[in-house]
Amino acid sequence: MVLAMARPWKHPTTGSYYARKAVPAPLREAVGKSELKESLGTKDPAEARQRFPDVIARFDLLLASAAARSGAQQGRPMRLTQRQLAGLGGEWLRAELARHEDDPGQPAAWDATFDALWDKLDDNREAHPGDLDFTPTPADLAEAEALIRERGIAPDTETVERFASVLLGAKLDVARIMVRRAGGDWSPAPEVAQRPVWQPLAPQPPAAPALTVAALVSAYERENPHQPQRTRDRRAACVRALVAAAGHDDATRIGKAEIRAWKEVRLGAGVAPKTVATDLTILSPAWSYGIKNGHLPDGPNPFSGMAPKVPKRDENSRTGFTDEEAAAILAAARHETGALRWLPWLLALTGARVGEASDAAKEDVRQVDGVWCLDIHPSPGRRLKNAHSQRRTPLHSALIAEGFLNYVEGLPAGSPLFPDLRVGKAGTRSEAASTRLSEWLRDKLKITDRRKVGAHSWRHRMEDMMRRARIPTEAADAIVGHENPRNAGSGYGDGFRAWPGELAKELEKVASPLGSTRD
């Protein structure tokens, strides 16, 4: 039983009122929270009491949706075929005609019924209703599911949604026929004849899924072993939540309906759209792998297009350091040691990702065709974002003049480039590097703009500096390790990545934030 708060809750510190509702234990994994809570946007108790019922009603709908799709239902959910759904819709249509046909009433009343049903269609109203988009309401879905369950069938989510559309079409046909009957036309209705007869189904015993979601993901990860442990852990949590929301563990029956149900439960629980989008993105490659390798039926990836739209840039988006900030940071780094001394300079003048630099080894700083480079490649202690991340980025002359090579030479053979950074749970130093740089930036340099972080803001700045210097796009992509799908020609020939000397010439067009000489 779900226990709801009987009245708004007043926050002890702010004085603002909230609506709160406990999430039943069986639904917590699907919802992602143990409690639903939302501000009522007021400190006035009377106004809070007014707003409270609407929010609680929305919470109730969310929990009902999660419960309907959870694993609590007995037996394996069944997916009906298109013919079966059409037959079930035909049975309903014939029953409705039997109720009304002998005494149809006035045509105007049935016209009004038809118009009200037609208004539920989304668009394209000149086409046949079967071709129209229809977004069922919770009431439509509940009616459709109830009619299917009356036949002793436990339907899956997609079957319910498809039958809701079939049922709307049947209702429109009933209204059409009854308009004719009310006008004196008693000829046989083609709308009835074109529907198949419903054939009751024999009970089916529960069956184990041919391929569980966990097994599919495990197979995908075996072929893609070079992934951070934190990514694997997050994917495992997503698998558990998806299975809970879908109500089954059969990977072959995970479609857009199940994915949408999981998404809506998460968004309804107040999870940020960006987080939900990331969770969907982290599972999508496993389904692409399954389709490509024959584990799943041929067809489009059901995750395609399902992620919530997230603006690429908003008020909290990362941004690059200004010229003044960059100069201040590099000047302050001269008074530090270890990673704080050299990591800001390396990031500032290569545009590398923090993990690409922090997880490098002494031997990764080497000469290629006479040019000093940072050799960025996958290794047990360094995982790259993608294949395009592997590259040899030239070292800027300002970095060499600063004494970086002397620092590298002083490290023992086989040493990490920054041995003072601790190795985290994921087996890398990037988390420690990001934390140390961010704290140093905030505490010592007083750069508190949340859009600017000690690691990635250098990468944003390098992109802007290369644009300002008019560096060719292909060269810029080779420097920072980007893929440019819009530049089809970059896939031909060896390109700038094979010419460190040419790449070094382009990189030198980017000026050091502190100029060419030391202060």
Automatic annotation (TrEMBL):
Sequence intervals crossing the membrane: none
Native organism taxonomy: Bacteria, Pseudomonadati, Pseudomonadota, Alphaproteobacteria, Acetobacterales
A GO term, aspect molecular function: DNA binding
Chain ranges of the DUF6538 domain: 14-65
Key words, A-Z: DNA recombination, DNA-binding
Organism encoding this protein: Roseomonas acroporae
GO aspect biological process, one term: DNA recombination
Protein name: Site-specific integrase
